[in-house]
Write a structure and sequence with these properties.
Polyprenyl_synt_CS (chains A, B); 297 residues; Farnesyl Diphosphate Synthase; Isoprenoid_synthase_dom_sf (chains A, B); mainly alpha; homodimer; 14 helices; (2E,6E)-farnesyl diphosphate synthase activity (chains A, B)
């Protein structure tokens, strides 16, 4: 029987959903609008790709995915805050995200900024509260550092800035790779390694997971560039052509559709290759890479 | 010889300054504007009260203040990010802070938002990289949780939201206490307890430090309300009367100047009282409380 990746991702996303429900402060406490606003964006129908990747790595390495849920969800909280801030009028000024009005369109810019700040801080709180097995404290501290690097100025935040600086300017391939690697790649990379660290991976395993994550993260983002041109507005939940509207350089604008998809395929091959050295059954990780290569939303 | 608190704070602030210099990413890397923007606000001449409090507690409990510098500086990075976001047009829309143009007036709103996000993330990175003595990992994780609670939606961010919701509205004493306790008190409380946790404080010592910190934090904030009316623009580095301009309820608007200063005095007495149970020489902590009660900037 072949592995059903779509089904796997669906069941894991449900686990993540339930965990996020527990980690997000309940509505009905003061100041309610803050908690509502955070919940609005966290439960706006994301794919939960980053937590699923963390769980997939934990599972592959024989760890307990239920115990690993806080580690998995931390990157989703970071991802969500980054979308809220990115959509602000001062940044990309987007009115819709996943088919729903963006956070600031509902709650106003000030609450949106603070909801983002709250989610970013909550990510570290949830992470620092993870129950680790005896002796696991050192690993949990490594996990926290991994998230801080992936999400911070050397990772996602740095990528956001580079992206902003190139709005309306032509970026060359190196710059585009820098932007993608930092803006989306770094957090995906962190999610994968955090799963490895949680499950007690060796340095060699972590290196192989890093190679897998970087390749897959870049493939994911180039696929995103492609979907922005050929995608289906309904499946994507946002207008296609939004990169064009923001005058952003993309792989498609630099290389065209066909060469861009070739790059996706090549990176996916390299992601598969990276897994070969691992002494585990890596079916799930292979399947996710293939799934992302062909995804339509 | 009496203890010279002003001199103590000056020398400790210098240590903090040098440490922040090491923790902040150097300029001259891409994207430079991000690192410049972060450095601009971090080195805009803050009093470094929160790190000094952390160091004072570590010193009082016999810990090594040099080893504790990352723990001390983390709250300053949080404090700085909160000022950058708070000054944004979408929030308080302030053009000046400590006598200098605010971050977004120099770098624009988008970079200011991202510099804030970067500093918030850096706080947890610096903290998670603290070198602890053997067996100190559990304590470092407690320190990280302490910061996340103090800075997040149950602390500072929640207070910011409450403050926003009451702009132009009259807040009663309970609400004003909620705002102050969360907006500024929670981070001061975290700074004090983080020092205690770093130095291996017992539960009893932590409780006493908590009482001290809450009283002192509220006294500090009421003194701030007073200075907004009677302060000297030059010493404060911001216009006096800015609370009035933002139509904010303050202790002074609710109780008048004289009763507000009485509250400062009473809270300071209670802060002193809280220290009495501690089996340490608490001269430094007493002096800081007295210093803050009478401060003019």
């Amino acid at each position: 029987m072949t592995f059903d990746c779509r089904e796997y991702m669906k069941t894991r996303a449900q686990l993540v959903e339930q965990a996020l429900e527990r980690y997000l402060p309940a509505s009905g406490q003061y100041p309610d609008i803050l908690f509502e606003s955070m919940r609005y964006s966290v439960f706006a129908g994301g794919k939960r790709l980053r937590p699923i990747l963390t769980l997939a790595v934990i599972e592959t390495l024989g760890g307990d995915i239920h115990d690993g849920l806080p580690v998995a969800c931390a990157t989703e909280l970071i991802h969500t805050y980054s979308l809220i801030h990115d959509d602000l009028p001062a940044m990309d000024n987007d009115d819709f995200r996943r088919g729903k009005p963006t956070n600031h369109k509902i709650y106003g810019d000030a609450i949106a900024i603070l909801a983002g700040d709250g989610l970013l801080t909550l990510a570290f709180q949830v992470l620092a509260e993870t129950k680790m097995p005896a002796g696991g404290e050192t690993r949990l501290l490594q996990i926290i550092r991994e998230l801080a690097y992936g999400a911070g100025v050397y990772g996602m935040v740095g990528g956001q800035v580079a992206d902003l600086l190139h709005e309306g300017k032509k970026a060359d391939e190196n710059m585009l790779a820098f932007i993608h690697k930092h803006k989306t790649g770094a957090l995906i990379h962190a999610a994968v390694r955090m799963g490895g660290l949680f499950a007690g991976a060796t340095e060699e395993t972590l290196s192989a997971l890093s190679r897998y994550a970087w390749r897959m993260g870049l493939a994911f983002q180039i696929r995103d560039d492609i979907l922005d041109i050929v995608g289906d507005t309904e499946k994507l939940g946002k207008k296609v052509g939004s990169d064009l509207a923001h005058d952003k350089s993309t792989y498609v604008s630099l290389f065209g559709l066909s060469e861009s998809q070739q790059k996706v395929n090549q990176l996916t091959d390299e992601a598969h290759e990276a897994l070969k050295t691992l002494p585990y059954d890596t079916t799930i990780l292979h399947s996710i890479a293939d799934y992302l290569m062909g995804r339509e939303s």
